[in-house]
Every structure is written in structure tokens, then in C-alpha cells.
Design a protein that fits this description.
Blueprint: H1 2-36, H2 40-59, H3 62-73, H4 75-87, H5 97-100, E1 107-109, E2 112-119, E3 126-131, E4 142-145, E5 148-150, E6 152-157, E7 160-163
Antiparallel strand pairs: 1-2, 2-3, 3-7, 4-5, 6-7
Helix pairs in contact: 1-2
Keywords: Membrane, Transmembrane, Transmembrane helix
Length: about 160
């Protein structure tokens, strides 16, 4: 599964660049069409809307939006994982969580549950979602990759944290 994520990464950048090029090209074409028809106000409005949308889309933190959205949509399944872990039963990972987690698993690190969302190709750095049994301190560490220890940086709620 890790090889699949590495392969997808190489194709994602050209796809994103192609999408931006397509948006810029069609925005330019619309502005030029309006200018050729001497519709200067429409041309200005089109250019302004395209520029504002580009800035908004470029400035959004898509990773935070995605992680927060997944947690918000599946809060009950995250709570069920915690209940299974606390009762000592084997963890049943929901089908959708196998796609959120890099290796398709939820790792148990003592009292901590950890879902690895990202790990670089050398396993030197990683980030993911962790459930901590107690509020974190400055000394709270979670193993995010084989060569990295991360600390909780953002509270997702219900004891779950984004770890980098």
C-alpha cells in the first residue's frame, strides 16, 4: 500500500499543475472574449472573480480541511475504536479508515492509538492522528515513523490529536 501512495504522489503534482493551467487558460479566454466584444465591465468582473477564487483556493490549508472533515464525519467510528481499545478487544478498522491510514491499520503504542496518515519515503518523518488517554504535555511523544517521534500539535476533539 505504501508503494501505491508513493506512486500517486508522483502523478498528483502534474495533475494539480494541469488543473491550474486549465483554470488560468479558460479565465484568460473568457476575459479576452469579453474584451473583444467590448464588454469591459464583464471582462473586469470575470478577471476579478477568477483572481479571487485563485487566491482563496491557493490559501486554503487542504490537509487541515481534509483531516478535520474526516474526523467530523466519522466521529462515532473513532469513538468505537477507542472503546474497543479500552476494553482490550481486537481493533476493527472500518473500511474507509484503511484509506485514511497509510498502512490501512491503527497502531497501538501502549495506551496511544495512532493512524499514520503521512510518512516520507525514507520513513524519517511522519504525521497522523493519535488518540491520547490524557491531555498532552510538552513531553508527550508518539512514534510517527520508524525514524521520527512527533508531538501533538492540534486538538481534533474527544482525545484525538493531529501529530507531527
Amino acid at each position: 500500500m505504501e508503494k501505491l501512495f508513493q506512486a500517486i504522489w508522483w502523478f498528483s503534482m502534474p495533475a494539480i499543475a494541469a488543473a491550474w493551467a486549465w483554470a488560468v487558460l479558460w479565465s484568460f479566454a473568457a476575459v479576452m472574449t469579453y474584451l473583444s466584444l467590448k464588454r469591459h465591465v464583464r471582462s473586469f468582473v470575470t478577471l476579478t472573480i477568477a483572481a479571487l477564487l485563485g487566491v482563496v483556493i491557493f490559501r486554503i490549508d487542504w490537509q487541515t480541511l481534509y483531516i478535520d472533515g474526516q474526523f467530523w464525519l466519522h466521529r462515532d467510528e473513532f469513538a468505537a475504536l477507542v472503546a474497543e481499545h479500552e476494553s482490550g478487544r481486537p481493533l476493527t478498522v472500518p473500511w474507509w479508515m484503511k484509506y485514511l491510514s497509510m498502512d490501512g491499520q491503527v497502531q497501538q503504542q501502549g495506551e496511544v492509538l495512532y493512524l499514520p496518515v503521512f510518512e516520507d519515503w525514507r520513513a524519517e518523518t511522519g504525521s497522523g492522528i493519535a488518540h491520547l488517554p490524557a491531555p498532552p504535555t510538552s513531553r508527550t511523544l508518539v512514534q510517527t515513523a520508524s525514524g521520527d517521534l512527533g508531538s501533538p500539535v492540534r486538538d481534533l476533539g474527544d482525545g484525538w490529536w493531529w501529530v507531527e
